[in-house]
């Protein structure tokens, strides 16, 4: 995997985690519970990164760029994008418009 693709995947995961933590922060009965967020990061952040890193490696650089655009400036996380929109990587050699 080339450096640009690795950097894109890292940035996508970082943005996704920020958006997820922001959702968690606002979902806690309107009250901010810093300890709950810290516990999630401690218990889940590494597994979250590894899971999505493995899943994102099959996407092209162009598709990763589109995913990053979807995350930037939104409240969506990777679960919303990959499961909600049924995004699948384009097979190698196929055009994204004609898989």
What's the short story on this structure?
This protein has 4 helices and no strands. The protein has helices at residues 3-27, 34-56, 61-71, 78-84.
Described by the principal axes of the CA atoms, the overall outline is elongated
Radius of gyration: 15 Å
How many DSSP E strands? 0
Query: What string, H for helix and E for strand, traces the elements in order?
Result: HHHH
Strand composition percent: under 5%
**Distance linking N and C termini:** 22 Å
Mean pLDDT: 83
- Helical fraction equals 55-70%
Low-confidence blocks of residues: 95-99
The major pleated sheet works out as: none
Task: Quickly count the domains.
Answer: 1
Structural class: mainly alpha
Tally of helical segments: 4
What does the model show?
The chain has 99 residues and is mainly alpha-helical. It is built from four helices and no strands. It has one domain (3-84). It has helices at residues 3-27, 34-56, 61-71, 78-84. α1 (3-27) packs antiparallel against α2 (34-56) and α1 (3-27) runs parallel beside α3. The longest helix is centred in the first third of the chain and has 25 residues, at 3-27. The two termini are 22 Å apart.
List the helices and strands and how they pair.
Layout: H1 3-27, H2 34-56, H3 61-71, H4 78-84
Helix pairs in contact: 1-2, 1-3
